[in-house]
Amino acid sequence: MLDKQIIQQFNNSFPRDISDQFLFPFDTYRIFLERLSINPLLFFNKWSDNNRQSIIDKYWMPSTKLDWKWSLSLPLFSVLEKYLENIVSPKIIGFSGLPGSGKSTLGFWVDNVARDLGLDIKVISLDDFYLPGKEMDIAMNGNPWNVPRGFPGSHSIELLNQSLDAFLETGLLKSPTFDKSLRDGKGDRSGWCEIKPKVLILEGWFVGCEPISNLMEIDYLFEDEFNLCLSQIEKDFRSSIQKSLIQYSQIWSKFDKLWHLKSSKFNNTILWKNQQEKEMIKLKGSGLKGNRLSDFIRMIQTSIPQQSFLSINSDTTLEINQDRRINKLYTNTYIF
């Protein structure tokens, strides 16, 4: 624990115009930083430095809120820097968040700030390891949501396992790249990349979800609560998805730590995904809309039981509301 003098200095120096934007008590914020092994006073001084400010400000989205900056982005990056100071061998951090929650935007920020600061940190997506086009079509054939990809079973798990194992052993990651715009939006492999970071973040919407043994019981108990009205084909198909998740568990076991951007309500992702696709259409001229968007959202809601996301065994969790404002933050004790 920090002594009272340092705590008082931090309390006095931290700007009120930032802390007033927090939806959680300021003491909770300070304790959160401490449990991440971050000295709050040194943290504030470092990220208030003009040189750092000029770098990080370039990559914020115009809509980025102060709580998102100071209680998620900057603490996460500080933890990544501590890894670089303390580790000898490469490490993998998992990062989980529902579609549209903001995890990809955060990954873009981390990648660019790390590059500008000359730090060996890289963010990749589970989506990079989607199956090649023809294999994907076979794997997705007959799914009740008529989506071309997205749920467990649409990734090259053996390749991902091999790639991450090789990275942990040698520090070199060989990763495919996936272009979702190819094949009229069905997507396909578009190339390969080789990177050699010391810290790798793997992000994805169901990262950390474990298979559930009592799926039929959960369907019976919670179907009315979530008002999903699951069809029989949906129930049958997500049983096969649970079998796929067993293989994904091998991936999660490679994480040194797992961060979870947790939604306060699962249905928040309906709004987020709609917003995300509208923005994609505005920026790139293409994106999901109409029935294709509705089908994708239905897949997100029903392919994995919502209880799975409530029980992700994360080391650090930040709960966000419908507006992507951070409601709560908590962590297990962080030891490097």
Task: Quickly list its features.
336 residues; alpha/beta; 2 domains; six-stranded mixed β-sheet; two-stranded antiparallel ribbon; 14 helices; 8 strands
Number of domains: 2
Looking at the overall shape, the CATH architecture of the largest domain is: 3-Layer(aba) Sandwich
Helix count equals: 14
Count of strand segments: 8
CATH class call of the largest domain: Alpha Beta
Helix content: 40-55%
CATH topology of the largest domain: Rossmann fold
Instruction: Estimate the mean pLDDT confidence.
Output: 90
The Rg value, from CA coordinates, equals 20 Å
- Largest sheet: number of strands, sense, barrel closure: 6 strands, mixed
Distance between the termini: 16 Å
- Low-pLDDT stretches are none
Q: Helix/strand-derived class?
A: alpha/beta
The share of residues in extended strands comes to 15-25%
Q: Give the neighbour order of strands across the main sheet.
A: 2-5-1-6-7-8
Going by CATH, the homologous superfamily of the largest domain would be: P-loop containing nucleotide triphosphate hydrolases
Estimate the global geometry from the Cα principal axes.
globular
Run of helices and strands: HHHHHHEHEHHEEEHHEHHHEE
